[in-house]
Amino acid sequence: IRMSGSSRGCGLLDGKVVIVTGASSGIGAESARLFAREGATVLLAARSEDRLAKVVDSIKSDGGTASQVVCDVTKAADIERLANTAVERYCQLDCAFNNAALSAGLAPLADLSEAELDELIATNIKGMWLAMRAEIRAMLAAGNGGSIVNMTSLAGIRGVAGMSTYAATKHAVIGLSRSAAHDYGRSGLRINAIAPGLVDTEAVLAWKQGAPEGTQAYEAMTPLGRTGRPIEVAEAAAWLLSDRAGYLTGAVLAIDGGMTA
């Protein structure tokens, strides 16, 4: 059984069933809304049931198809249940956008606690690995190929002062993505990563108001002269997930206004 997709026409993701983790706010929520507009049936996952429900309701009110699963990506049972739910509820799993992650406050390496390190590793590395494992197993079992996009960061490509531990976890996401692309390319699975720079999420917008000199300095170093918008990250993820990126795997796409150019 294959999903018929949106009645609006042929979008980038028409007929696809897509998991989005970290979908209750920010880039994840924006991506889920866009994927639905592009014809996908979207299964949203995050820890906050109330916030998830609001995003699902907004997608449905816009004519899209979506549902939710409360999920903690650090727990294997939760992630397995998420992938199984996609298959049981919609009879397929075509794509996944693994967006769930923790960020960290700015501090030199020696000032960080072991507890902070453990928390970042649990979500950003182990959580990513668990999600990929469950999604890959579901896609292999169906035998129809699939596409996965993992969220890394500008800090996964280059060093960033005060972000050593966070950067280490985001470098690890790139390693997971590239190696898995080698493992599963012959099975029809494409696995890529996106690496945004500074994006106007709620936290960044609050930072702009409270300490504008920080974001102004970033913008001054960026060829496009501004921070990114969540929809711009979502658009890139949608394209990578779609069949239009069919010969692209193992890639890391920087969405950073030219910062790494």
Strand content: 5-15%
What is the overall pLDDT average? Answer: 94
Q: H/E order of the elements? A: EHEHEHEHEHEHHHE
The strand line-up of the biggest sheet is 3-2-1-4-5-6-7
Which outline best applies?
globular
Structural class: alpha/beta
Biggest β-sheet strands, sense, barrel: 7 strands, parallel
**Poorly predicted tracts of residues:** none
Q: How many strand units?
A: 7
Amino-to-carboxy terminus distance: 44 Å
Number of helices: 8
- Gyration radius, to the nearest Å? 18 Å
Helix content: 40-55%
List the topology elements.
Blueprint (H helix, E strand, L loop, with lengths): L16 E5 L4 H12 L3 E6 L2 H13 L3 E6 L5 H15 L4 E4 L15 H29 L3 E6 L12 H21 L4 E8 L5 H9 L1 H10 L8 H12 L10 E4 L6
Parallel strand pairs: 1-2, 1-4, 2-3, 4-5, 5-6, 6-7
Keywords:
7-stranded parallel sheet; 8 helices; globular; single chain; 261 residues; 7 strands; alpha/beta
Short note summarizing the structure:
With 261 residues, the chain is of the alpha/beta class.
How would you describe what is shown here?
- The protein contains eight helices and seven strands; from the N terminus they run βαβαβαβαβαβαααβ.
- It has helices spanning 26-37, 49-61, 76-90, 114-142, 164-184, 202-210, 212-221, 230-241; strands at residues 17-21, 41-46, 65-70, 95-98, 146-151, 189-196, 252-255.
- A seven-stranded parallel sheet has the order 3-2-1-4-5-6-7, with helices on both faces.
- α6 crosses α7.
- The model has no long low-confidence stretch (mean pLDDT 94).
